[in-house]
């Protein structure tokens, strides 16, 4: 019997989209949290941490209530895209987003906070707007850390199980992601399929994390540079 | 037409006591016109804080900041212009050149933010090119800041600031940690910049030499207050109080009484250590007032008893001497100090009673 590779492609597609959302929304939120003072900042910070500590079933339940067919948000989604969100592969994207965003935002905030404020002040004093300073100064200086964080996010998006099965379900060929497919294979006694998929997931995760670790390690080029250049 | 008081700032900023710090209040009225104004004072005097308030990085609790005729900050009407709208060039202690850009990219970043050059790529390119040339950076344009020496970084930071066309230039201890040669080079570049730009330059330092090298006017700050301000010569020739004179450390202070005052001839005589010294007229004082004779150490010439001239001099006993970078430092009784060159010192050797010759114009009396 041949192996059905659909879950792998679906998981990759879901993880790509979820990471894209995490990078845009997450970086924006992390920037606001690290650079702005506003009312309710600590509350928002706690809210962002919540998905990390709640059981996936609780999160999934909330999502079902929040974007289910009976909710206003669900109605809105259905009106815009023409079909309900729950029990589609798009719901798996939302689940994967929730799975990886909190860690990304918390770590990205820490990374953005370590960018030396004097570079940002210098850019402002040169007349550069906040937007331009963010793109040209803050982001490039934080790039190394953020990109290794992005691979971590991607790997984490690949692995969500609990929320996905709650909101996207387990429809083979439509919403069955890798982790759900493994669960399914074990449940139905298909040990060979489970072993193959487990191996695939592990290899994919390792392949993602390895370059990430190299990115976050001090660059060889920089280390060599500091030895050969004359002291300032 | 020359404008007066181009920067006018009244600033109050309070910091309550924290676990590891005393409460602090900055409360100053600061004015600066074209030319270099130096904020001088010990660490923790509030110099950098004042600079940050001018640049807009720190929001004062009270006060008003005017640049030309524009209101940058006004507590009463809740105006607080963002730093990027103030066009105050700020040079940081370590220059803060963007480490991920080359020198040329650093300059281009500033040029494209300058209001006049928005959208005019050709003009912008030419100005970057001109300034790279003017600051001898053309050969280094492709380098990253990490590959520059201290002096080169400084020139790059100045060139970058000038491209942004600031209306006010703020410098926070730009020569800190640089050796004497680089400092001298920096003073040269700063003098050129001052001549080229007709804008106020405000510079923080706690180095007296820097004051003498660059300042047109001086603000002496301590503990969040202005102790004294004015043109450099006026401030250093006439410190406003004994404490200021003592803290500057460049004066000889000897107990003195006013023996005679002649407003008509604009002269006075001071009784110092049982001897008499001629000085200028001191308005607001009376004969018999007790205080201190205050003379800058650099104004004093040291003579032996044989020297014919015996005009305006004090006899003191030499107690010790030491080598310094500017010559031989002689220490006399009553803590008087004078510096002489090595050849002068040879001529004085062996004598222990010496004469300190003081030009009358350098004599100053502090009550």
Q: Give the CATH architecture of the largest domain in chain B.
A: 3-Layer(aba) Sandwich
Strand content of chain A: under 5%
Mean pLDDT of chain A: 87
Overall morphology of chain A: globular
- Quaternary organisation: heterodimer
Biggest β-sheet: strands ordered side by side in the sheet of chain B: 7-8-9-3-10-11
Low-confidence stretches of chain B: none
How many domains of chain A? The number is 1
Largest sheet composition of chain B: 6 strands, mixed
Order of helices and strands of chain A: HHHHHHHHHHH
Structure description:
The complex is a heterodimer of chains A (232) and B (367). With 232 residues, chain A is mainly α. Chain A contains 11 helices and no strands. Chain A has one domain: MetI-like (MetI-like fold, Orthogonal Bundle). Chain A has helices at 6-35, 41-53, 56-67, 72-81, 89-114, 117-125, 130-158, 162-167, 178-187, 191-216, 220-228. In chain A, helix 2 (41-53) packs across helix 5 (89-114) and helix 5 crosses helix 7 (130-158). The longest helix of chain A has 30 residues, at 6-35. Chain A is globular. With 367 residues, chain B is an alpha+beta fold. Chain B starts with 6 loop residues before the first strand and ends with a strand. Chain B is globular. The longest helix of chain B has 17 residues, at 180-196. In chain B, a hairpin with a 2-residue loop joins strand 13 (267-272) and strand 14 (275-280). Chain B has a 6-stranded mixed sheet with strand order 7-8-9-3-10-11, with helices on both faces. A 5-stranded antiparallel sheet of chain B has the order 2-1-4-5-6, with helices on one face. Chain B has 2 domains: 7-237, P-loop containing nucleotide triphosphate hydrolases (Rossmann fold), CATH 3.40.50.300; 245-366, no CATH class. Chain B is built from 10 helices and 21 strands.
């Amino acid at each position: 019997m041949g192996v059905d590779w659909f879950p792998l492609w679906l998981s990759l597609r879901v993880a790509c989209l979820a990471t894209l959302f995490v990078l845009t929304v997450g970086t924006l939120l992390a920037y606001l949290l690290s650079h702005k003072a506003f009312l309710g900042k600590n509350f928002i910070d706690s809210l962002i941490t919540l998905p990390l500590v709640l059981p996936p079933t609780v999160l999934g339940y909330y999502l079902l209530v929040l974007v289910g067919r009976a909710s206003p948000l669900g109605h809105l989604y259905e009106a815009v895209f023409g079909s309900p969100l729950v029990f589609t592969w798009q719901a798996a994207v939302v689940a994967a987003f929730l799975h990886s965003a909190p860690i990304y935002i918390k770590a990205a905030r820490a990374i953005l906070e370590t960018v030396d404020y004097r570079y940002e002040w210098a850019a402002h004093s040169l007349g550069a707007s906040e937007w331009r300073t963010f793109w040209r100064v803050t982001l490039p200086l934080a790039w190394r850390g953020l990109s290794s964080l992005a691979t971590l996010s991607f790997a984490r998006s690949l692995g969500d199980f609990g929320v996905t099965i709650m909101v996207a379900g387990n429809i083979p060929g439509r919403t069955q992601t890798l982790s759900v497919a493994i669960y399914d294979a074990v449940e139905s006694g298909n040990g060979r399929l489970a072993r193959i998929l487990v191996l695939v997931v592990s290899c994919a995760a390792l392949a993602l994390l390895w370059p990430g670790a190299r990115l976050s390690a001090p660059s060889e080029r920089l280390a060599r540079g500091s030895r050969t250049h004359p002291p300032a | 037409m020359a404008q007066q008081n181009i920067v006018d700032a009244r600033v109050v900023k309070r910091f309550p006591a924290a676990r590891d710090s005393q409460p602090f209040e900055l409360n100053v009225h600061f004015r600066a016109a074209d030319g270099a104004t130096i904020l001088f004072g010990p660490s923790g005097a509030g110099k950098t804080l004042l600079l940050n308030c001018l640049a807009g990085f720190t929001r004062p609790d009270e006060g008003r900041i005017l640049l030309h005729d524009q209101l940058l900050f006004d507590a009463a009407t809740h105006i607080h212009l963002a730093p990027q709208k103030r066009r105050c060039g700020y040079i940081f202690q370590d220059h803060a050149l963007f480490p991920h850009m080359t020198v040329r990219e650093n300059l281009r970043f500033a040029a494209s933010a300058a209001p006049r050059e928005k959208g005019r790529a050709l003009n912008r390119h030419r100005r970057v090119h001109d300034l790279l040339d003017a600051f001898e950076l053309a050969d280094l344009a492709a380098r990253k800041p990490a590959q520059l020496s201290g002096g080169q970084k400084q020139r790059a930071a100045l060139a970058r600031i000038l491209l942004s066309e600031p209306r006010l230039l703020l410098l926070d201890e730009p020569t800190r940690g640089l050796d004497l040669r680089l400092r001298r080079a920096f003073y040269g570049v700063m003098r050129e910049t001052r001549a080229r730009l007709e804008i106020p330059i405000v510079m923080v330092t706690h180095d007296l030499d820097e004051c003498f090298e660059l300042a047109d006017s001086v603000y002496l700050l301590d503990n969040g207050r202005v102790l004294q301000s004015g043109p450099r010569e006026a401030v250093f020739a006439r410190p406003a109080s004994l404490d200021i004179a003592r803290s500057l450390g460049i004066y000889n202070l000897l107990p003195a009484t006013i023996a005679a005052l002649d407003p008509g001839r604009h002269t006075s005589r001071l009784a110092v250590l049982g001897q008499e010294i001629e000085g200028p007229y001191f308005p607001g004082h009376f004969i018999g007032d007790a205080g201190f004779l205050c003379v800058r150490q650099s104004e004093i010439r040291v003579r032996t008893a044989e020297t014919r001239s015996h005009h305006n001099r004090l006899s003191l006993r030499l107690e010790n001497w030491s080598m310094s970078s500017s010559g031989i430092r002689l220490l006399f009784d009553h803590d008087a100090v004078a510096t002489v060159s090595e050849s002068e010192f040879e001529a004085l050797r062996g004598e222990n009673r010496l004469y300190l010759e003081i030009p009358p114009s350098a004599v100053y009396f502090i009550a």
